[in-house]
Each structure stands twice: as C-alpha cells, then as structure tokens.
Amino acid sequence: MTTTTLSAAQGPVTDASALTGKRKIAFASFVDENYLPGFLALLRSLALSNPGVCEDFVVLYDDLRPGSIAKIRALHPRIVMKRVDADHYDSYKKGDQDNYLVRKAYFILDVFRIREYDTVITLDTDMVVLGDLTELLQLREGLAAVPQFFYGQHKLNSGLLVIQREYLSDAFCAKLDKCGRSGDYELDKHDQGILNSVLDGDFVRLDARYNFVKRRLSGDLPVPEDTAILHFTGRHKPWQGGEAGYAQAEERWREFELTDAEFHAAYLEQQGGLHHDLLVHYGTPHVARTGDVEVARKVAAAHIANGDYQDAVDILSSVRIPLDEAWPHEVLGHALMSVSRYDEAKAQLLLATAAPNRAATAYARLAQIAWVHGDNATALKHATAGISVDPTHRPSRLWVQRAASVPAQELGAPEDQLAHVAFYMDRQGNAGDKLLPESVRSAFGPDTTSRRWHSVHAHRLFDEAALERVNRRRGLVIGGGGLFIPDTMPNGNSAWQWNVPDELMKRIDVPIAVFAVGFNAFDGQSYRAGRFRESLRLLVEQSSFFGLRNHGSIAKVRAMVPAHLHDKIRFQPCPTTVTRQLTPGWQDPAKRDDTILINAAYDRAGLRFGHDYDYFLAQMAKAVRDLGELAEVQCVAHSLDDEKIAFDLRREHGISMPVIPMYDFENKEILDLYARTKLVIGMRGHAGMIPFGVGTPIISLISHPKMAYFLNDIERPEWGVSVHDRHLAARLVERSRDLLADHAKTVADVHGRQQELWKVTEANASDLRVILGS
C-alpha cells in the first residue's frame, strides 16, 4: 500500500513532538560574567519555588568562561548554551554600547530568533522566582508580559516575556529589525523600546506579581506574599552590595545565595512533586557526598519511573542500607528484578516484608518474580501474604488472580499448533490488549483456540522448558500489541516486553513470524538503547517474517538495526483494523445507536499532556456540550483509569456522561459495541483501530505518535486532532459534524481505507503460508 507519508525518497515523519503536537517549552536568559551570580541565584530560585518544573533553559551568552558554564550546568540538567553575536545589530545601535543593559537588550532580541520551541519564557538575571509559574507555562497564545509600572498599560516591561511560536518567527524578527534600523524607539532599554514600538500595546497583560519590580518596595517595604517573580531593577544588585531602602527585598534574594551542597539539600528536603530530572541531577552528587540512604531511595525511584533501572540499581548499591530500612530495600528489589537479577531482588524484597507499611508491595513483587519464573504456587503464597497485610492492595490481588488461574487445556497435537508470544491481559485489564491475541490468531485462520495455538505469555521468562515447548510446534508467532515498549513489564534480558535471553532466542529452530507489532515509545520516553538494539537485531535476523503495524514503527526499527536487515522489515497492519474481513460471517449492523463514544487515556499522563491537561479538559468540556447536539455522548473506558475524564469533567465543569466499563467486556461485546455506535473519538491506539476495523468512523485524540502513524497509513491524517491543539474543541466538533453529515458515505470511506489494509494482509498471508507450511 502506498501512503502520503512514505516513499522511496522520503520516509514518514517520526519526530514524536511533531506528531503529537506536544508543546516544547523553554526558559531563556542572557548571561555574562558580571551577572553570573544573579543568574545562579535565579536558577536556584526556579528549582526551589517550582520543584516539579524542569524545561530546557536557553542561555544566551557571548563571553562566559568555561568555568562559569560549568557552574551553570551544575545547577540545571537541561541547559542549552547558545552563543550570540550582536554584530547584526550594528545598523541600529545607539548610546553607550559597552553598557551592560544596552548589550543585554540587543542579545535578548535574539530570543525571537529561537526556532526549537513553541513557548519561550524570558527571565532577567536580576530576578528570583518566589512562587508558582504554572499560569505562565499554561499560556498558549500571544506575547505576554507585565505592563510597565510607571508608564501605564500601553507599554510592557521586558524583564519577563512569555513568547508563543507565532512571534518566534522570521516575520516578527523582520519587524524588530526594521524598527531597530529606523531608530524610532526609546533609548534607555533598546529591547523594551523596540518591542513596545512594534507591539504598540498589543500584548497579553500579566499580573504585576509575575514581574514585581524592586522600585515598588522603596522605603524597605516587605515583598508581598503572592509575588511570583521579584525583579531587582536598577543599577544596584544584591550580589554587588545592594541598595539602601530595599533590605527586605534583598533578604529574599539572599535566600538563594547557597553553596551547591546547601542548594541540593534544600531541594531534596521538599515533599512530593519533585521533577525526575532535577531529583536525579541534585540527588546524585548529594548521595555521593553524604551516603544519604533516603535520598538514594528517592533518586532510585525516579530512575525506575523513567525506565532507567540500572541507574536505580547503581545508586542504591552505592550506599549502605540498614537492615531495618524497608523502603530502600523494596526499591532496590524492584530495580534488580527490572534488570533480571532475580535472586538478588528476592533477597532485598524479603528484607522489605518486615515493615508493615512496605510489606504488601514487597510481597506483590515477590509474587511477580515467582510468576515470571512459572512458579504459580509460590506466586500465590506471596500474593496471599500481601493481601493479609493489606486487603485493599490491588497488585497483590492481581497476582492472586494470575497465580490461581488454571491455564486452558491444550486440545491439539504440538505439530498442529503455532506457539504464540503475546501479552495476555488480565480480567479488568486494557480492553484493547485483551482483544489483541485473539485478533492476531484470527489472521492465521478461524480457529483461535488451544487446538491450534500454544500460548506463551511475553512477560514470563523464556527458559529452557519454554524453548523446548516452542520447538515442538510448527512455528512461533510474536504479536499482540505494541510489544516494543520498555516499561510495561521491564526485564534485563531483552529490554522490551518479551522476557527472552539472547542465547535462548538463538536456539529457536522453528520459523518465527513477528506479526503486527508496534514501536510504542511515548514522546519523551527512551529505551536502554544497547540491550534493546542487540535483542531487536537478533530478533530481525532470526525471523522468517517481520511485520510491523505502521510505517512509523518501520522507520524507528530500521534506524536501530544494520542496513542489510532493513528489507526484512515490512508493513503488516494490526489485525484489529481488518476485523470485518477476518470474522467469519461478519454482518454490518442494520442500525446504529445514536451515540458518540469518547475515550481518554491516563497511563503516563505527564508524557501525554505535559502542562496542558487543564486546557485539554476545558476543551473537552466544550466539545462534549456541543457534540451532545449531534448524538448522545458516552465515555468508553478501556481500562479503569480511563474513567478519570468522566470524573474530572463532572467535578471541574459540571458535565456528566455515562461511563461504559469496556474493561469488563468479553471480546465479542467489545466489537459489537464499537460496530453499533456512529462515531468514536479515542485516545488509545485501539480506541481507533478496533472501531475502524468494524467499520465505524473515528477521530483520534493524538497524545502518542502511534495514532498519527496509523492515520497516515490510511491516508486520513485529518481524522486526528492533537490533545494540545489550540482549537481542540472546535476542530473535534467540526470534524464530527462533517463525518456524521453523510454517515453512509463516511462508513463507505472507512470500508475503502480498510480494504487497502486487507490487501496488504492478504499478500502477507500468502508468504506466511509458505513460511509456516500451512
């Protein structure tokens, strides 16, 4: 199948931010040697006042020494150094060009030449941050600033600017240059004068607390409690001795005049909401300096949350954990099991069971290790112990359920079966993942039972016994979702979902077919590149058929393996997208319910929404109200967490809608519900692919690249809207109205797009029949 995004000359777009529309935000300052002490205090104040915020910080400079740059980098993990040159302003320089304020003014104009970000927030180096900046991070339109204190509402003070992408453009820079060359601007602060002349009062006005100038405090007045940013305007700076009449203001500045050790300790003492990057950046040297076990635990937990399991092992292994400190033992056990050092993990977790507040979690992890190794009896014992400590502990109940379940009796002879590696979802698990294994099997024939299939759970350790069982079958199929993701059930053997050591994969001697697997990393998520690449390369080499479910995944995987393997990697659509073709005797519904189903996903919410969740929720509230005029709007929950949108809409916006617990549905019920509705607006990948596969029109809420990959493959990118879109509600309603206006025509279009995917599937099936001998 040809697509609009893949050709021999140019592959598909795979940049995650470009596909999801997630805003890239940065802070920016101009820094020189004289103002370096002020900038270091600014960085400390930003971290201490907003401990959960860590965006790129662009440092514009022209003469900083290497030692000064090292001091800056020590205070922030995401510094972007950008050397600037004021020579291009020669044609409109005025006044004393050696004056720092004038030089800074020219350099600050270079902020508007930044192109890598959607939002840039400038901060002067004579500022300190005292309060929450969430409101600034959530701004999405215009150029925002605080009006000048002495000059009224018409002019802005450029110490703080919140600049959106339309101003970070060649067109706006041309206006600034033209104004600068004309000389028609104020002489005192050139950037301020040029900006005020070009904007002529057209800017978003922020409250004065975001740029509270020192002059307001003359007479030694106290700094107001709600001040978010305090600006030490004037020639006398706190690090230079200060100025009479501003003692209380300067005392606030001196709160951030700290050594690195003092600063690290101050950050790490804060409770909750610490950003992963900052916690690791400050916590790692603190642990090396002090051996602090509690901080090591926090840093290790941050590494685990980010998928950096070996780093978690390393930092906790570097300190001496007392026997009675249960929590660090539990976190170290978690990290060790995530890199497949299972015996060491068990020792740590057993120590953690001694403390009542950590015992349930430790027992659940012990149950997981036993289950991974196929020891259901031990898994059940540990999980039951976890419930005895805490009857409400959901992970322990999950492991009881898994360990106590009786596997389906295999009905067929091994030589008549295919082995099938997949993620077999638990009851009340993700509805899409629950349907996938059966859907994959249906692509190989109508019998999806154990008569023809031998199940191999991807998350269980693939050991000698599992290898022997697979090699007795006539082939091995690997497929059932986005198995190329690092953190669903981490292991150190492959670094993706199938827990298979290389040496055992090499000894599989039946044909291997990788079928419709997806590369599922989120925007901002990474793999342990070395281990994953090696396992992936070996898998491609060993496979007789290697089919990925979208061209975006194909491009990602090809970039990770040697060039001679690229041609082995082919397109195989997810079988859920061709359900109508694969289901014997399928009948399209004679009549559809007058409903629109909405699905939202909340796993890894920070990666999905960034700073835009409140905006997304407000836009969805407006959309649900307007969509209600077209049909009844209902929430469809693929997993328990998906119900959150209904709760939040009711609590924050007074909107109620029915919730359909699809996580409790059987596979046939899932297909039936999606086939009977008129339209599905979904955020999960299979809240798009499953309804599409049964012939129902879809609109994707894009918060993950895979959604855009699929829509590009079917040549309907307009069926997707980013959760970050500035006009999300309007676009959803407009596109819904268009799709529903002539519903029969839209359904026919879905069928036509599906037919193209079916052609690919049929062609691949022909090859698979040869490979698998059936």
From TrEMBL:
Molecular function per GO: transferase activity
Domain of life of the source: Bacteria
Protein name: Polysaccharide pyruvyl transferase family protein
PANTHER family: GLYCOGENIN SUBFAMILY MEMBER (PTHR11183)
Entry-linked Gene3D superfamilies: Spore Coat Polysaccharide Biosynthesis Protein SpsA, Chain A, Tetratricopeptide repeat domain
Keywords: Transferase
Ranges of residues in domain Polysaccharide pyruvyl transferase: 476-702
